[in-house]
Write a structure and sequence with these properties.
Number of strands: 0
Order of helices and strands: HHH
Shape: extended
Radius of gyration: 15 Å
Structural class: mainly alpha
Helix content: 25-40%
Distance between the termini: 33 Å
Mean pLDDT: 80
Number of helices: 3
Low-confidence stretches: none
Strand content: under 5%
Largest sheet: none
Length: 78
Amino acid sequence: WDRPGMHNPLLIVRILAESVRKVPLGRLCVGQMAGGYDPEPGWQEPEPDTVFDQVIEAAQELDLDGMVETRVTLRRVA
């Protein structure tokens, strides 16, 4: 819940639209460790606004975590 830069239960990070305007959609849909979008060093997360808060509330009502399946595997480290 309280990870750096993600202070909502859906782990949504706020970022200015202008900074991702030219980023391919596929890179925005995967995490950084899977080759997804990686903000420029020193970027600042903008403050939330009313619309953002409304979107978070609407997303919470969708029960998104009920659609997530997780598979955990351990790999041997040499």
